[in-house]
Amino acid sequence: MMAALRSHLCAGRRVYAEGGGAAYLCQQMETPDGQRKRMAGILPAVARLAKSPRPAHPVELTISRSNWLCDKGTRLRGYRNSLWHFEPTGALGGFVTEPGHEDTLAGSFHSVMSLVHLSFAAQPSCIDHFFLPRAEREALPWTVPSQGL
Question: Dihedral (C-alpha) 121, 126, 132, 135: value to the nearest 10 degrees?
């Protein structure tokens, strides 16, 4: 599976992962007792499992720079997963403006990882971004409303 994910990205395709899926994309995962396990190695980060996670809580974040999932300035809503913390080990770029959320939504190359379980119903414009490259989206005869859901 690790090789298939790497091959998928090398072919120019995209990967989006939340929570545990994002941890799987990291170089390593560290358990609460300090053991490290090798992961897929796609994202330059170590995923740390929280010793005492808090319940998921609602968050709203502003995108600081455009990526394949959404444009700069987009407001995303969802539930923050406190089970994980990601520590970058290389060029892992954050995508949110709010201080203290640097590792909440980040990415490298064509991969985006999130500690927020996004509500795609709350931001339907992300659905077009998720499935279609920018050139294909711009050629569509309709637009998805970004408000009202």
Answer: 140
Per-residue model confidence as pLDDT tens digits over 89-141? 887 788 888 887 777 888 876 888 998 998 888 887 787 777 766 555 454 44
Check: CB of residue 40 under 8 Å from CB of residue 80.
no
Other Cβ atoms within 10 Å of 118 Cβ, number: 21
User: Tens of pLDDT along 2-42?
Assistant: 889 888 888 888 889 998 999 999 999 998 888 999 999 88
Please state the pTM of the whole predicted model.
0.79
Strands 36-38 and 26-30: antiparallel
Q: Compute the half-sphere exposure of residue 27: CA atoms within 13 Å on the CB side of its CA.
A: 11
Rounded Cα distance between 102 and 51, Å, is: 20
Q: How far apart are CA 1 and CA 4, in angstroms?
A: 5
Is 43:2 a contact under the CB 8 Å cutoff? no
Beta strand residue intervals within the chain, DSSP E: 15-18, 26-30, 36-38, 43-49, 57-62, 75-80, 84-88, 93-94, 105-108, 111-114, 116-118
